[in-house]
User: Fold this.
Amino acid sequence: MQAYRLESHTGLDALRRVDLPDPTLAPDEILVRVRANAINYRDLSMPLGGYPRNDKIPLIPLSDAAGEVIDVGSDVTEFKPGDRVANCFFRDWIDGDINEQQMHTAHGGGIDGVLAQFIGLKQHAAVHIPAHLSFQQAATLPCAAVTAWQALTAADLNPDQTILTLGTGGVSIFALQLAKTAGARVIITSSSDEKLDRARALGADLTINYKTHPDWETEVRKLTDGIGVDNVVELGGVGTLEKSLAAAKVSGTVSLIGILARGENPSPLPVLFNRLTVRGIYVGSRAMFQQLNRTLETHQIQPVIDQCIPFADAPRAYDLLQSAKHFGKIVIKHD
Ligand SMILES: NC(=O)c1ccc[n+]([C@@H]2O[C@H](COP(=O)([O-])OP(=O)(O)OC[C@H]3O[C@@H](n4cnc5c(N)ncnc54)[C@H](OP(=O)(O)O)[C@@H]3O)[C@@H](O)[C@H]2O)c1
Assistant:
């Protein structure tokens, strides 16, 4: 089969298209013909190395795939040939809290990923995909959508909440769509007015351009009568955290997810004086993915795909993601 492989931690030039033997099946595994992959911001970091617990080399990259089951091992009970499935981001995080051992099983980091024509998956590392989604749409779910789902539900998503989400990349657009299904009010930021128009069309209630309003946390407080938001979907990291802490209401939550922006280490004092909960979010478990899928189905949510790149041009997907011109997800499609 054809696959891509990172041969070293010397940057994207180390990504090669290679011929590998087709995966062989263990009794508890399913063989999946991959029909689509999605790329995430983290996949830009892997070629450089140093990502905690994600240093396998050589490495088949990417954490997200959707496809059809073509064979099952003798112990498999949940899947049959012809089923439409996606993989879980963590192979071994099934439910409950994640532990150290499970942390080492992230596809496309600690273990081989899914940028290949065929993949073998433990049955506990796969989920059925919602019937209303294409393979390309379903491929966007394992990392970005599950992350957004955990960030919102761990902070008790409900219609009385105001959610702030940063930027218009994959996680943020899912956070917007999912928060709206619960009837929450959503404030979203972007560097682009055109992207903010698109976010409003998807249901965003209030928008802030963080380039024209560098003090966007002040804007957030103005838009919330000086109170602040219930939950910040914090995607910037050190470069935005201080502002996110300032945008959260007393007793609010900051869901710490991203590493997009550089900056000074912020002061922790607002956490204390405003009694904030700062919660680390690391994608999610298989159980969270299954709950997410039920919500996607109930509300017939359509994941937002910016572009689909052919498998043969997969490195272009990395370039497009790096350019940050996209809105939502960039997908790789197979023939
Ligand atoms: N912890 C986890 O489990 C987890 C899971 C998934 C992702 N992440 C992290 O979350 C972040 C977003 O991931 P993604 O895959 O959604 O990325 P992405 O699709 O590449 O999103 C990039 C977008 O983020 C926005 N952005 C960049 N710098 C920003 C800043 N300083 N302030 C506000 N927005 C900014 C830009 O939106 P505009 O063009 O609209 O300005 C940019 O287009 C990344 O750091 C990623 O590593 C973490």
Remarks:
- The radius of gyration is 20 Å.
- The chain has two domains: 2-142+284-333, 155-280.
- The chain has a mean pLDDT of 97.
